[in-house]
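Figure 3 (text version): structure tokens given as input.
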């Protein structure tokens, strides 16, 4: 039951993050877009973002489980796997944030 609550709690924060994040690429491009503007631009996508948050949380939990089963005596391999997982998460998040900015703020089509 704790995993369910943790997943819902994490999904809530993912939803909030995804609603606010379009302001980050705008700031990097020197545009005047506030977090509130990003929040308003993503109106109507809350349920979609919540489902994405659940999927991200479950994926993250799966990666952590897989990394936890690496034997302790293979510490170097464990650290390399942790680094690769963190790098993939970073690249995915960067891609996601810029895509949300382009779609919701600049009104570009996804396809």
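Below: residues designed for each position.
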């Amino acid at each position: 039951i704790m995993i369910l609550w943790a997943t819902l709690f994490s999904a809530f924060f993912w939803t909030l993050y995804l609603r606010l994040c379009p302001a980050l690429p705008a700031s990097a491009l020197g545009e005047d877009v506030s977090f509130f503007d990003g929040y308003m631009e993503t109106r109507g996508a809350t349920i979609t973002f919540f489902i994405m948050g659940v999927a991200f949380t479950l994926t993250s939990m799966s990666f952590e489980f897989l990394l936890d089963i690496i034997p302790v005596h293979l510490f170097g391999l464990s650290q390399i796997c942790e680094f690769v997982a963190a790098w993939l998460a970073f690249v995915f998040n960067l891609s996601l944030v810029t895509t949300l900015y382009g779609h919701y703020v600049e009104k570009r089509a996804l396809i």
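The first helix runs from residue 2 to 20.
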